[in-house]
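Entry for the shared binder. Reason: the reviewer on the internal report wants the predicted structure included alongside the sequence.
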Amino acid sequence: MFDADLTVTRPTLTSPGPLLVALYRFGAEASSTADLWQQLTENYIVDLDAVAALLPRAEPDPAWRPSRD
């Protein structure tokens, strides 16, 4: 988890428009969703619920049952 330095001010992103721009910019550089979250929270103060609503949900892979012969 990011250790926030309270003496350093960061811009706040709470409205969907600027938040989408930041997600698009960091999404191009991020190698995973976890990396995207880390880059976003290191550079901005964000509404985490708004970010979660904008990102696609990670669906688990289906566990297929073996077929009967």
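Summary line for the report: Residues 12-54 form one domain.
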